[in-house]
Amino acid sequence: MTAYDIYLATPALRDADAFLPKLAQGLATLPPAAVLLRLADAPEPQLVSLIQKILPVVQGQDIAVLLEDRPALAKKTGCDGVHLSPRFAGGSVRDVRKLLGDDLQLGVAVGVSRDAAMRAGEEGADYICFGAGGAPADAEDILPGTPEPTPVELAKWWCLVMELPAVVEVPEPAQLAQVAASGADFMMPAITFWDTPQAWHIPA
Fold first, then answer.
1. Number of domains in the chain
2. Is the pTM of this model over 0.70?
3. Helices and strands (H and E) in the chain: how many
4. Which residues form the Thiamine phosphate synthase/TenI domain (predicted)?
5. For the residues 175-202, what does the mean pLDDT come to?
6. Domain range for 48
7. Residue 4 — very low, low, confident or very high, per pLDDT cuts 50/70/90?
8. Facing residues of 128 across strands?
9. How far is CA 6 from CA 26, 29, 33, 58, in A?
């Protein structure tokens, strides 16, 4: 076990069969603790079929599968949990926690907002995820004339003062060492990982 774990996120999938070779290669190249399964919009029977093809491949290697933004479907199909993206509009974190119960994991993407991260923890999240594209930095965290804090900077602060695990999105391989040094519990490579998994060499 390293000081951090890898958390791989898939592209938004429409065809499980087409992705399975990439999935197998990625899992072998950079074995993760968990996989975030993202699905393109489709009728529920099609989504269920896709999930049922992915789950045995991942869970069969003792790797958790978290489904993005579909808590009811995650519970129905036997996923290990749910990850709420910034686009989720199906209720509050507290609502999703109540739906999932205590057995399934719940993660929340919080952008670069300390307030959103703390609020997610208070409402029942099992981890928070810092990255681009989510909630902006809180006004009190930005001094005049300075840029907003980066996900890595927030992770350093969070891991010093909070116990709730933190995930940090990593946009490109060159940033792996910096994120690894932040103290984050999990690193989430960008979805470009699946095209060139060998490029994502984890620093010793």
1. 1
2. yes
3. 7, 8
4. 7-186
5. 93
6. 5-196
7. confident
8. 108, 166
9. 11, 11, 6, 14
